[in-house]
Structures are given as C-alpha cells and as structure tokens.
Amino acid sequence: MVVPDHCRARYRTAAQIKVSGAIGNLRDGAQITAHGVATRLLAWPGTGFQTEAVHVVTVQPNEQSEHWCYDLAEDALLCHSGHPEVLLRGAWVGMAPGDLAYVPPGRERAIRNTTDTMAILVNQITPPQIDLYIDHGLYNADMGVFNYDSAHKATTNAVPSQMAGDGRFSYQDTSPEVRAWNLSVEDVRRDGALFNVYRGTPYSGIGLPMRLVLWPGAGSRTSGFNFAYGADGVEDVIHKHPVADECLVIWAGRGRFYMGDRWVEVEAGDAVLAPCGVAHGHVSVGPALFGGFASPPQLDLVIPDRGVYRDGRFVTTTTTTELTVDI
User: Are 23 and 9 in contact (CB under 8 A)?
Assistant: First the structure.
C-alpha cells in the first residue's frame, strides 16, 4: 500500500501541513542525534507542530543514551519493539512493546539497551524541546526561529529506516512498584510512572472503544496518549482539536486516515499528522490498533464526558481497565 506522494509529510512543507495535515511514517523523517542516540523526527515544528514533538528513537544493542533532564518539557517514551530499559523514578526499569514511560519535568531520564537486539521507542516531548535541533542547523538560536528550508530538505532527503512496521504490543504488569495503576495521581505527576497502552480509562466519545492512557487524570500535565481498537469497518468521528496537535499512528493492521480534506489508505507504521485545527479520523480495514500522541490535553474530547472531566477539573478517581482486542 503506497501513500500518494502529495499526501506524504516527506514532500509537504510545514506551512502546508499546518493547513491540511500529512501522512508520516515511523520509518521516515529527518535524522538527528539527541542525547547521544539516533533519532528520527516524525512530528515536530519542522512539520508544522507547535505543542508537541514526536521522535522515533533507535537504541542499538549495548548502547546507552546520555542522562538528561528538562525543566519544562515532559517525556512519554513508548516501547515499539525490543526490550530497552528506561531510567525512571531513580532506577533502571525494563520495558516491553506496549509499555509507556512518563517522565515529568525536573526528573532525570535515560534509556539503554542491554540486549543483543535493536530497540525502538516513540518519544513524545511536550512542549517541543527546541534546543535539540540547534546543532543540526534546524533552529537558529540567535534569531529565535526555525530554519524551515533546512528542515524541509532534511525531511525530503532522509533515507527510510528498515524498522518493522507493526508494533507487537502486549499487556504487561511487570515492575509493579512503578506501574501507574499502583501509584497515586499526585505521585505520578511528581516522579513519573510506567504505563501500558492496553490499560487506561475507558472512553468512547469519538465512536469506538478506546482508552485514555496518558492524560491529566492519570498524572501528566501536557503529555497525552490514547489507544484504540477498531474491528473491520469501525470508524471514529472525523474531528479537529481547537488547541491540540495530534500524531495518530496505526500500530497494527490496515485502514484509512482522514487527512484535512481526503481519505488516504494506510498500514502499520503510518501516522496522520494533524496540527491544531486540522480535521482527521480513521476507519479500520480489517482489525487494527491505533493510537495518538496529543498535547495539550484535548478538552474538546473530555468536556462532554462528565465521568472524566467536570467543572473545570479532571476526574482522577476513574477506574482503569484493560482494552480487549481481537487481532
């Protein structure tokens, strides 16, 4: 299945994506080194995003990143494949595909791979940590502006990686001492936690079974991740977010993404880049797993559901449950 070139983020400018979106892919995007490890830029200011960045991080066997800490930005690190470890709550914690580590501002983090198999993580940073792009000529610190020409050239000419398309996710409850469902919301917000994509707060506000995995009701401030299952022909409501950027990835299976003003056929590894105000949606072709990184919290989705948001406050006592799928 081939996404038409005129829909691909590789060939669209940031200005075009801001208006009508684009289809990216986990294998594609400009390449940089961030914190000492290879990083591919999927959704970031160079592709029209302003409230979040989504990077694909590759950690080779026996490789370790630098330790880093942000005073402002939050990190959400989703294990796509392999078995890396993340420095979380002051200790190294093992991850499996489907695990999602949340690290709040002010807390040190790092990743390493002690196995003999490559590990891949999808990293959401909110807000974008723009100093990561300086050394690669993508951001001019003296002028305080992005170099969109350099960003577009780096994206158009990037060599796609050979990573597997499917995220072979599974439910995990290892390391119970750092699992979000065993900690208070206040504890998660202060020191971080380990989540899993299959466990979260049930929500069906856009027409299909999904879980709010990482959201303020679970302890984050600006980071957000939701996860959904769609049987053949299941379609969510085409929608747009008035203040949030979203990067919606199809993790397994096939489907169609609505992008701005058209439907595009997609498969595992493809992502619809939908900056603030860009219409997007999904329909499954056969069973499919998909989920989105979004920032800031999508109040337009949760305000109608008084079970998760009421009178200006998130409901933090909502029970989390596993998402049952058949794929």
Answer: yes
